[in-house]
Amino acid sequence: MKVNKMKNYKVLVQSLILFLLCIVKTNAQELLTLENAVKITLENNFQIKISNNNLDINKTNVAIGNAGMLPALTGSLLDNNSIQNSSQTRQDGVQTTLNNAKNTSLTYGVGLDWTIFDGLRMFARLDQLKELQKLGEAQLKLTLITNISDVNTQYYDLVQQQQQLAALDTTLIISNQRLTLAKNRFTIGKASKLEVLNAQVDLNTDQVTLLRQKELYANSKILLNQLLARDVTTDFKVIDVLKVDEMLLLDELTILAKKQNPQLETQIINKRVAELELKQIKAARYPTVRVNTSYNFSKSQSSLGFLSQSQSKGFNYGFAASLNLFDGFSQNRNEKIAKIQIENTKLNIEQLNLALNSQLSTSYQTYLTNLELIELEEKNEAIAKQNLDITLDKFHIGTITTLEFRTAQLNYVNATVRYSNAQFQAKLSEIALRELAGNINF
């Protein structure tokens, strides 16, 4: 009997030591805070880097030369040479013949061409380039918000999983204690073999559940590392407290969404771009005036002919004007299409406004419900813990059945999981509302 007690005691001690070693190992891991996760994301995330590069392209394109306001300066060089057998007959009948006659012609110079008026199209183009830069900024903001939102979601998912692991570790210790007590009672003849077998089965079940949860936790770490664009095998731990902001107000979120939502901001900029496109198309109704000037040097030599050598150099200048008189009604057609595109951008803005209001209202209602669930599940967990403590005391003195004990144990685990899940769901609602309002903290 003493031998069996010693064996059971050793099993319990080994389980406690294993649990403590797990805690020590966890404490030795890197503590990854949400702030650090966001910082790493901003530095490493590939989508954010690509959006930054696209914004740099848009900024580079904002230039008066790209809008067509600056002149074009070109240099030219032309050198022609020929060797021919030539024969010439003059009006008086005299014939001249020369074999291997060499002729050379050299021309070079610099020319300038400048469009000084194009119906103000160049100014509309410059404004459009500036709007495209703003569009790139809005798209970068959208990329930032989307990725930071994903990091928040994955991070707090790990927090709730870590909480559930702690609850499963606790219930595993209790199941080990139960098995030890069952074996002791069986040894002294106060319990049947069936009680021991049931305790062993329940312990095995708890171990399987814990292993599955550890697998899910490890895979979730890999996903977060992927979002952070770092080595997916990097080990870390997260904070163990999940706090939800309970002070969000729908009216304030709606106001922020109209000002800061990057998708709405993108549609507003698209409308402005379409308006400037129409302005550029209308510029074709006005004349285009260009001025040009050049300085050229020309020299030619001929072995046969009236002139053996000629040379010239100097300035050329002038201007050209053109006006589209008729183009098969293409101008009217292009303007009509541009106006329809502007109307489409207006409809997109109205549609997005309606969708934002709808999403904000539904997400806020979910947020309020989840806040109530947190309060309810917190009470349920406290009651389940109290019930488990009482049941455990009664089980030690043998006044309740193993079925009643197992029920109390599972009720506590389920209550803990539900409470953790309620907090996580409320946090998801908070993140969704902040994402819609464009108000996620970077």
Automatic annotation (TrEMBL):
Q: Give the principal location in a single coarse category.
A: membrane
Gene Ontology molecular function terms on file: efflux transmembrane transporter activity; porin activity
Residues annotated as signal peptide:
1-28
Q: Where in the cell is it found?
A: Cell outer membrane
The protein's matches in Gene3D superfamilies, at most eight in alphabetical order, are given as: Outer membrane efflux proteins (OEP)
What protein family does this chain belong to?
Belongs to the outer membrane factor (OMF) (TC 1.B.17) family.
Record protein name field: Outer membrane protein TolC
**Organism of derivation:** Flavobacterium frigoris
Report the SUPFAM superfamilies cross-referenced here: Outer membrane efflux proteins (OEP)
Top-rank taxon, per record: Bacteria
- UniProt KW keywords: Cell outer membrane, Membrane, Signal, Transmembrane, Transmembrane beta strand, Transport
For this record, the Gene Ontology CC terms, alphabetical, are: cell outer membrane; efflux pump complex
The family database entries (InterPro entries) matched by this protein are listed as: OMP_efflux, TolC-like
